[in-house]
Amino acid sequence: MNSIQFEYSVPRYVLSKMMGKLSKSFYWNSRLSCVRLRRVEVPKLPNDEWVKVKVKYGGICGSDLNLILLNDSPTTSPFASFPFTIGHEVVGTIEEVGSKVENIHVGDRVVIDPILSCITRGIADPCPNCQRGDYSLCHFMTEGEISPGMLIGTCRDTGGSWGSYLVAHKSQVLNLPDNVNDLNGVLVEPFSCALHAVLRNPPKKDDTVLVIGAGAIGICVVAAIRALEIPCRIVVLAKHAFQAQLASHYGADEIIYLTKNKNYIYETAKSLHASVLEPLFGDPVVQGGADLIFECVGNKQSINDALRFTRHGGKVVLLGLAGIIDGVDWTTVWFNELDIKGSFAYSTDEYRGKKMRTLQIAIELMRNEKVDLSPLVTHRFPLENYRDALQTVINKGKGSTMKVVFEP
């Protein structure tokens, strides 16, 4: 089968880092880069508790782009096994079922919870985090019956959604209701990232929430808050007009455009009923601000803005994939006694008094027509055109690009 794989080697990494400074396309458009389209064997079931999935759509995630552009921190490298097929956002159909799998049938239309935690790894004595349902915080992502990997799409044994087939443990399989179409299905995973952050850090009634970034995750944060029917005010800081339109569509109360000059700081402060003070030098200082901020970009400017626009005693939830970032001013964290919370992926969360996998909650919201995310899928590409797909994602502003998916 065809597969888009990430293959690490020191020469490939160093050369890509050097040449990528001249043109980002070198990261995927050269025979010497770490990313290649290859013919590989269809992955085999690791044991009788696994299933094989034929991929219908495989999404391109911001974390995939971070990987390809070699922006990931080395901290994450032990939690992968090379070479691996990229991609963890998936909707597909069951192609093969192990003999110890029940209630899952060939032909079922499914999404996959890609976290590779204790149960998927066959670890008899699960770690404390997995025992309480925090699968994304598993202690044993490098151990057990399969190779290291945080997710399907980072493990060489499982395949990924940027290939025609992948394998998954029976515990990872979630059936899609008939009224949830495939375009919503491929967005269950990214929506669950946003949903997990909101459910673990719910806005209070009448809070002012600022969402920084209006890419797929930022829009999904807005959609999650509204799908959960939380009565708060949502302000979104967006870069492009098409992002602003989608943010409004999903329930944002106000959109502020990010500008290269610093005018957006004054406009955002006004929206948040905050005051602006001028320091001796440097960027303006904001007094007051949002009760809760979801930071969905993960770069120096967005993190500084999150810290700048949070009121005294407020909370910042970091969803953006920040790695090693210089130039972040952390003064307001201690000066304003801010609560800083990271959010990684999804696990189990409480919904209407019941503890469920986050992806199950996402599917339930879609089934009950609380949210329809299919408009977020703006582009589809066959695997063979992966270079065009990645170029489209990189130049998202030019093509009004939100979510790009592969059709293997």
UniProtKB/TrEMBL annotation:
**Residues annotated as domain Alcohol dehydrogenase-like C-terminal:** 216-353
UniProt xrefs under SUPFAM superfamilies: GroES-like, NAD(P)-binding Rossmann-fold domains
Per its record, what are the GO molecular function terms? oxidoreductase activity; zinc ion binding
Which residues does the UniProt record annotate as the domain Alcohol dehydrogenase-like N-terminal?
Answer: 48-178
According to the lineage, what is the superkingdom? Bacteria
Under the heading Gene3D superfamilies, the entry gives: Medium-chain alcohol dehydrogenases, catalytic domain, NAD(P)-binding Rossmann-like Domain
Which cofactors does this protein require? Zn(2+)
For this UniProt record, the keywords arranged alphabetically read as follows: Metal-binding, Oxidoreductase, Zinc
Which family does the entry's similarity section mention? Belongs to the zinc-containing alcohol dehydrogenase family.
Name assigned to this protein = Threonine dehydrogenase-like Zn-dependent dehydrogenase
Q: Which organism is it from?
A: [Anoxybacillus] calidus
